[in-house]
Amino acid sequence: MFNTETVFHLIGDPCLKLYRAKGKGFWYFEFDDRVRFGTKQVLVKRINDLPLDTWVSKGRTFAAAMRVKHKR
Asked: What is the pTM of this model?
């Protein structure tokens, strides 16, 4: 069993957060570096419905895509 703090620690990106959407049945990553902002849904009810390495991979991939997408 793991929690959001474990996911944050392993991803290691201060611009990325992970939240559970209350009453919606999914989680989402939020990226915000004060210049770029975006979210990515992860359609699972409980954080432990996916393996930890999947969360880390999804988070890192999303953060990297946000940085590349809006790089100027």
From this structure: 0.89
